[in-house]
Amino acid sequence: MTAVIKKTLAVLGLGVALAAPAVQAGGSLDLSLSNDDFRFAWDATQANSGMHVNLAWLHHEDDGDMLEAGVHVVDVRPGKRNLYIGIGAKLHAINTDWFDAGGVGVGGFFRYAFPANRDVSVAGYGYYAPSVLSFSDADNIINADLRLQYSMIPTARLFVGYRYVGIRLDGGGSRYELGDGLHAGLSIDF
Q1: Which positions carry the signal peptide feature in this UniProt record (predicted)?
Q2: 10-41 residue pLDDT tens
Q3: Architecture of domain 3-189 in CATH?
Q4: Global pTM?
Q5: Please, how many CA atoms are within 13 Å of residue 3, restricted to the half-sphere of its CB?
């Protein structure tokens, strides 16, 4: 295990230990799959607050792995709203056979339920780690996902989407893409 991954796992562990007592409400589990990769994510929001944390692991059978840990503020206005948004940052740790990289991406996520049929929604996230917030072999990192969802029951959504993870390495050149492409999955709220 490389030094970057070890340090990132230590930071992730510390972050979870510090955030876990504060996050005492529901959350969600998210699993997305394609022929070559899967992504597993856990999200939680503290009741009656704007704090939202998440952890995720993306694995591609040929391209490598990425761990993510995020902290966000979310819109907590009362009522059934069609739009749910969060703004914050995510720590990314990437390990491949060719390089190790990391960065702190700033960005956010959203979910919009269509008023005509609230069971259908569009959701996504986007984060950018510029050079000043990237480390190890990375010059910058882009991590984005856009999906169309359908609520089978109030606590479970099926989705199809497109994910893009691009890492520009130090020294320029083209982007290394990790687990990009179409995927399908399931999101379960608890």
Answers
A1: 1-25
A2: 555 545 444 455 445 678 999 999 999 999 99
A3: Beta Barrel (2.40)
A4: 0.86
A5: 3
